[in-house]
Specification:
Elements: E1 5-8, H1 18-31, H2 38-43, H3 49-56, H4 64-78, H5 88-97, E2 101-106, H6 110-119, E3 128-131, H7 142-151, E4 158-162, H8 165-172, E5 178-181, H9 188-192, E6 198-200, H10 203-211
InterPro entries: HAD-like_hydrolase_sf, HAD-like_sf, HAD-SF_hydro_IA, HAD_2, HAD_sf, PGP-like_dom2
Keywords: Hydrolase
GO biological process, one term: DNA repair
């Protein structure tokens, strides 16, 4: 587990925001009389927002932008209590003490990512961040390739940490090592399909895994 660069997904991996994302997606869908189950809403967390709309509402392309805007407004208005999972701050600071490079690869928009980086006062913890709105959505590996280029680290010396198939598939596409976390969106059965080095059931286990090789 001795890596030079650790790349984290945000929602469901570092940040306890899945519940509010689901609530906001359902609120937006209801405004336009579109049925949406909890499972369907959870299943798309990790994708870029345009891809979320295309996946959830393929039969009403003319409404997708309106639903997206309703979702974004509701999320911003109601996500003020979202925060890191317990232990995340300690994990990130310990990794920085070990002189690891840290990055974020997220399905959020740049505006959304900047907002939560400010909310957690964590801008200085990460060497580089990439949001889906400025690159390609997961599982396309472009955002990882951009992070590697920006940090000068090769894929074999980096590791991707995420809670969804999109995270692990993205890393698998460029043969980057990866760890799944089971406390986010996708089940262990789904995550194991992408051959992670390990699956952590909580942040404390993830902490132990990432620092075991330091």
């Amino acid at each position: 587990m001795d890596f030079d660069l650790i790349v984290f997904d945000w929602d469901g991996t570092l940040y306890n925001s899945v519940g509010q994302i689901v609530n906001s997606l359902q609120f937006a869908a209801q405004q336009y009389q579109q049925p949406l189950t909890d499972d369907a809403a959870k299943s798309v967390i990790g994708l870029g927002l345009p891809e979320v709309m295309q996946t959830l509402f393929p039969d009403v392309p003319h409404l997708q932008q309106d639903i997206l805007e309703a979702y974004s407004a509701h999320y911003v208005e109601n996500s003020g209590q979202d925060a890191w999972f317990d232990g995340v701050a300690e994990l990130l600071h310990d990794l920085k003490k070990q002189h690891k490079k840290l990055a974020v690869a997220t399905g959020k928009s740049r505006r959304g990512l900047d907002r939560v980086l400010h909310h957690t006062a964590s801008q200085d913890l990460f060497d580089v961040t990439r949001a889906a709105s400025e690159t390609r959505s997961k599982p396309d590996p472009l955002m990882l390739q951009q992070i590697l280029a920006a940090t000068g680290v090769t894929a074999d010396r980096a590791i991707m940490i995420g809670d969804t198939s999109y995270d692990l598939h993205m890393a698998q596409n460029i043969e980057m090592p990866r760890i799944g976390v089971s406390y986010g969106v996708h089940s262990i059965d789904v995550l194991t399909q992408f051959k992670p080095l390990a699956i952590a059931d909580n942040v404390q286990q993830l902490h132990q895994l990432l620092l075991s090789g330091s």
